[in-house]
Amino acid sequence: MNFVFLGMPGAGKGTQAKIISKKYNIPHISTGDILREAVANKTELGIQAKKYMDEGALVPDELVVSLVKERIIQPDCEKGFILDGFPRNLEQAKILEEMLEEIKKTLDAVFFFSLDEEVVVKRLTARRVCSNCGAVYNMIYNPPKVEGVCDICGGRLITRDDDKEETVRNRLRTYNKDTAPLIDYYKKKGLLYTIDASLSVNDVTKEIERHIKK
Ligand code: ADP
Ligand code: AMP
Q: In the predicted model, is pLDDT for residue 214 greater than 90?
């Protein structure tokens, strides 16, 4: 069960990856989460990555590729993994293929979360994340029980730095230019499964599982 979740920022990849990861007991590998942690810890990687993330640009391939390489050889990836936010351009997709070949693995499916750009902007500007456990909420679609407080751990909810509208627009430009070509790339390889990401969280999960069970 080696999966890639592909789609615009805000399409719901992280939300679904957390659910599927738990249900199928395979790790959720989010390059965005790993990079944000590096930024918070002010590591060398974080210091280098921050300026790109703040602009809504892609972090250079060499930085991202090495962290994925280290992660997917860990024993907990033996049964499978969900890559969320990687690959993000054709170069990364090719490197991923080589990486997997080296460890004698292949991708089983690429789930493409299809959603209108305006819905994405609306979702992202209303997104809140827990500063403690990383749980994801939405002020419109999935609000916490108590405003500003995480239902799960009681942590403080924050708005991601790159979720302000101006940065969101830049991230969408980056997506359209660099990441969208991956849709065709994986379609040609027969690996692409398109998911209607405008459905409710539950129904999107059902769609993904329908394909997994096949
Ligand atoms: P991504 O990981 O693709 O950037 P997220 O999973 O963080 O996206 O979701 C973006 C925002 O949209 C979050 O605030 C999340 O709570 C909300 N969201 C996710 N899935 C849905 C859905 N099916 N319907 C409505 N809102 C959703
Ligand atoms: P995400 O959490 O997936 O929305 O990613 C947040 C930010 O991290 C992106 O806007 C990029 O700056 C950076 N990032 C995450 N994944 C990658 C990747 N695979 N390649 C380059 N940059 C990435």
A: no
